[in-house]
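Hi! If you just cloned this repository, the fastest way to understand the data is to look at a raw example. We've pasted two of them here, unedited. The first protein comes first, obviously.
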Amino acid sequence: MKKISPAIALVGLAALVAYVLACRPAFSPDGRQVLLPVVEPDSGTITIVRHELGSRTALPLVALPSWEQGDDLPPMAMVRWLPDGQEALVAWAIDEDGPLWLMRLPVGHQRTPTRLFTIREFEGGYLSLISPPPIQGHHVFLGGEKIVRLDLDTGAQFEKGFTNGVVLEEQGDHIYYLREHPSAENQVEIGWLNPETLDLDPHWSFVRPEELDSCMFFAVSRDELRLASAAYNEDGQCRLWLFAGHDSVRTLDLGTTNQPLVLGNLIWSPDNRSLLAAAFRPAAIGSDTTEVCLFELDLERDAQRFTPVFRMEDSDKESTSTAMFQVALSPDGRWAAISNGLLHGDKDPQPSRRLFLVNLSRSNRPVTILPLEGRVQPPRSG
């Protein structure tokens, strides 16, 4: 079996597939379209699909290189829109120790050429694909056991290595990072990345209990005054850390051995009062069926809400992880999107590759199911 790099080992085995197969939809800047990766289970080919929400039609844009079934680390693909809404950035890897590929893909009406970039010998480069890579101007920033700044116009690269793997998130004009502290055991460090020098400026830290795996998901509120990070383990114990300013506001234990819960990526609501995440829990106490939900945590009222999206049986989980699903929020905050486009073991009789839209503007949180082919199903209440 292939050796796992320290950058991947630091997130814990329970979180491994969370980024190896992460599947986060990407809303266009105007909120009218969604880009997402979709895998063909038989061939392993990943296709980037554009979904027009108005007409409810899906259009395949480009197919990425396939992978061999049974590989220790299946590929990961992440897609995000460029700020002008006319191009997308697609990033993927087909080998944990191999190169990281990036594509500047035209998706609008402009007839611009497709451009392909390669970052070779990028050990731990999968960490750069946990979240959409940050972009500032014409530069994209990629984290792992080194941070790489790539010029999307010229292809020029500048890099800086680090002892532990680094995960990057952007908010406003800033790029934030998260990593395991290089010298303090079980301590997680979060701060800012200097985009010019690629130096790290630590600001927050917390001690992660040994029994919890660091899932490497964290989120900064839109006003950049609050920060949240979560960790969990394979038994479903889940803890959330909330920060304001330099100090930890509080910790919340959301999952227990008896009532397990796993959270995917975290997103702050536009008003900075609530947290959203893809969540995974048993459909019932003692059940072998996992319920994939949209989790909402109202921090002002300390209220939790789960909106069921779909379910997976044990047979579905043999080749995937319940932490592989990620949620995206529309620019206006009215819609949350979750996809099972990279699910490998889906035995559901409905079309197996679907986009799920949760209407956050409605009190009953109806879910619209958009098959990636065929007719769309009507909304259902959550």
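Ok, and the second one:
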Amino acid sequence: MDAQGEVLVTHQGPRTVEAFRAGAAAAQRYLELRAVKDPTPAQQVDLLLAEVDLGKLDLDAARARKDALTGLTPEQEARVAQALTDLEVMAMAQGLTRQADAAQRRALGGRFRAMLQEGRRPAGDQAAQPFYVLILDWAEHERDVATFEQALGALRERYGAQPGTERFFKQQEERLARLKQE
């Protein structure tokens, strides 16, 4: 929280010293960028990315800010596009309530699969988990073994080494085996 009472960062993720330090560093960087009176284009991009990362902007506001940026380098364009992809996935996933039925989950999984086919994948863990899990649901329903394997591989690469994920991955392997038998 800053001196004016604005919440700068809400910690999400592992509760480790390193993770808390990273959150504090992100908040500090945001404050530094926000304080710049006449920011360079690079600083404007960094501020936009910091605001997206800290949850300060919704998807529409982030898109508007991106559209107002001029003269982006290809690297900056890619960084902003990736941040907007993560934000888009999160916005879509948040629209899915806990009471969502299987058809709603599969429909969103189909939309995520289309993004995957376009080469648009989330980079952040918070967006990646629902993205790939819902693609699994869609792929199983559509009997699309290749997409199921692709999504499961992405999940395994990202989360496979984390303690406590063994049961989840065992269940997914069982789903895949049943899918291959059909």
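That's it. A detail worth noticing about the second one: Helices lie at 17-35, 41-53, 59-68, 74-94, 102-117, 125-142, 145-159, 166-181.
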